[in-house]
Amino acid sequence: MTTSPGTLDDGRRGGTLPPGGQRRWIPLAGLPKPVAHARAFTARALEDWAWSATSFGVDHDVAEDVVLLVAELVANAMLHGGGPLALVLDASDSRLRVEVSDGNPTLPTPRLPHQPSLPGGHGLFIVQQTSDRWGAERHDQGKTIWAEFDAARLAPGR
Question: Of 77, 128, 123, which Cα lies nearest the Cα of 103?
């Protein structure tokens, strides 16, 4: 697996995942407009991996859901977590894992039942509805909220 803050380790751009997958990260702490940065970073990674909404054989709705989910998690970190620390995209042949970390150790709790007519409380509902799995973990710097998409949903025709 390669790890990179934006490109493949050797600087090449590809149209598929490298053997073993790839883990990309971007620090978000202190960045202006972290939601916009996270969305653009995610869109570029999906494009590089041929999982974008414009890639052949990709379910465009699921690819757009990934970018939406990233925006929701980063926005939630801004509103409830003291600001996002980092975004990680961990892709393999079987799944895409999205992780957003913030400095607040308090784990989120979805508003149940979901009440679409009320303002607020929709971020985790979107995460639950769009991803295949999600969760939260505390760590020394705060917490990480993660969500996973099965690769077969992103590219069902492959």
Answer: 77
Which region, left, alpha or beta, applies to residue 70 given φ > 0 means left and ψ of -120 to 50 means alpha?
Answer: alpha
Tokens of 52: 């974008």
53-99 pLDDT, tens per residue? 899 999 999 999 999 999 999 999 999 999 999 999 999 999 999 99
Count of Cβ atoms closer than 10 Å to residue 23 Cβ = 16
Nearest to 103 by CA among 29, 26, 39, 42: 29
The CA-based angle 138-141-142, given to 5 degrees, is 40
Residue keyed to tokens 């975004």: 87
The phi, psi pair for 78, rounded to 5°, reads -70, -45
The DSSP 8-state label assigned to residue 109 in this structure reads -
C-beta separation of 7 from 26 below 8 A: no
For the entire predicted model, the pTM comes to 0.86
End-to-end CA distance of the chain: 21
Beta bridge partners of 46: none
**Which stretch of DSSP H or E encloses residue 34?**
helix 34-48
